[in-house]
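By convention, each integer encodes one residue's backbone shape. The lines below illustrate.
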Amino acid sequence: MKALILVGGFGMRLWPLTLSIPKPLVDFANKPMILHQIEALKAIGVTEVVLAINYQPEVMLNFLKEFESKLGMKITCSQENEPMGTAGPLALAKDKLLDGSGEPFFVLNSDVISEYPLRQMIEFHRAHGGEASIMVTKVDEPSKYGVVVMEEKTGKVEKFVEKPKIFVGNKINAGIYLLNPSVIDRIQLRPTSIEKEVFPKIAAEQKLYALVLPGFWMDIGQPRDYITGLGLYLNSLRKNSPSRLAVGPHIVGNVLVHESAVIGEGCLIGPDVAIGPNCVVESGVRLSRCTVMRGVRIKKHACISSSIIGWHSTVGQWARVENMTILGEDVHLCDEIYSNGGVVLPHKEIKSSILKPEIVM
């Protein structure tokens, strides 16, 4: 089987982290976002992954070369010279996806994190005999989204309703698809939306089916959702692989700590924290709802909550970092600095407090 991952463009929503590397390579729970998806695809027998990308394809491919051999998969790029939407990339990658076998292929949005029940999706797709299957997830406020109206028993999709004013359902597109090769014939080689232009036509012909996603789901393409998604992911680990989580008197709730990280005495860490490789957390530090990426140093008695600390950055003694502060790569926050929602570009030294959410150039 093959799969296409929709990588897209500049990743502006996760700026300034994406100033250093393409968004799919940004760490999530101590591994690049896209690797979560590639490993899930590998686990169900996918042998070739095509990345639909229009920004820095060579950086992506160079990085993924080592995983190609580790995982025993073929990973290639289909480069867009202009943004092609969510359907155009399928037409562009037609020759890479179609091999004459007639086998369906997966399409995933690169921002989506979940438990990826892909084997279940294959069984569902074969059982209904339609042309396309989509994963849907339940939400509390469907009026914010495009809602998928479907038959509960069969999963057959009846229609899509964009941001409904009155309740028509609570299931939305989760960005994971399994499509027959014939779907590509429906798509013109131009910027096209699969959600708004392709799926409604397949649904009108009663050939589109939806499977409700078990477990958690989150689009982690922007900082607030990234931190929420981290909490959901760690909670899923607690249920499925609890041995991967840190334990100890200094740990509260679900915490992921890389084996090479060093943690000092008297710290209180958690809930919902990921600490990356080669990090140093000095004594008396308090961390909650945050990601600390590779090579970060957090000095004594610093306090970090609801924030993302980029690679090789330093947080000074007695510093306080909160309210969705995002430090880019190699940012150095001096001692006793307060950051309230600061978004700091890479390679900066911060000597005065950031009292309200703002971008520090």
